[in-house]
Amino acid sequence: TEAGLEEWRKGMKKLASLLKETDPVIRKFAVLCLSENGDRSVVPELLEYASTLERHFPETERVLVALARIGDPRAVPLFLSWMEGEARRVRLVLKYLSPLILRVKSRDPWTNTVDGVISCLERAEEGKWSPKENAAVVEDARKALRQMTGKEFPKASDARAWWNAPQERESFLKKRTSP
């Protein structure tokens, strides 16, 4: 019923308000609960909470999982912005970016995501991080591309060539963004 739906929404907003608590255990369980229900109405609160995270990797991973499970395209810019940072966070983003984008049917998020992952792969191949981190990011970026596109790319230049071919890109985007 409409009344039941309104109560649900109020409960989700109340749960999302717990993300502002100082106790990390409360925040942890709030994120876990929010990730289980798939309600897109709490995405703004999750994004706001994510913006407060610096180097808290367990909390960062939990919020990435929650946003990926919900599958809202509003989360894509956050994911992509975190692919500019340190290798550890980049690898977390790459781990959860595919589950997020595979739920999205909008063209722009797909375009930005594929381009962002290819750019990340290029940076890793160029040596942005330490050799060990570069190797791990390359592996994770290739895996993310394989999950998103169904294609194997031995090198970033192969992925870029595919993505820059207008017919290939259009065909791919049409398949991924059709209802």
What report would you give on this structure?
The protein is an all-alpha fold and 179 residues long. 74% of the residues lie in helices and 0% in strands. The chain has 10 helices and no strands. It has helices spanning 2-17, 24-37, 43-50, 57-70, 76-81, 87-101, 107-126, 131-149, 156-164, 166-177. α6 runs parallel beside α8 (131-149), α7 (107-126) packs antiparallel against α8 (131-149) and α7 (107-126) runs antiparallel to α9 (156-164). The longest helix has 20 residues, at 107-126. The mean pLDDT is 94.
Short description:
This protein has ten helices and no strands. With 179 residues, it is mostly helical.
Q: Which regions have little confidence, pLDDT < 50, spanning 5+ residues?
A: none
Shape descriptor = flat
Quaternary form:
single chain
Task: Determine Rg (CA atoms, Å).
Answer: 18 Å
Outline the biggest β-sheet.
Answer: none
Strand content: under 5%
Helix content: over 70%
Count the E strands. Answer: 0
Order of helices and strands: HHHHHHHHHH
The whole-number mean of residue pLDDT values reads: 94
| Terminal CA distance | 27 Å
Number of helices: 10
Category by helix and strand content: mainly alpha
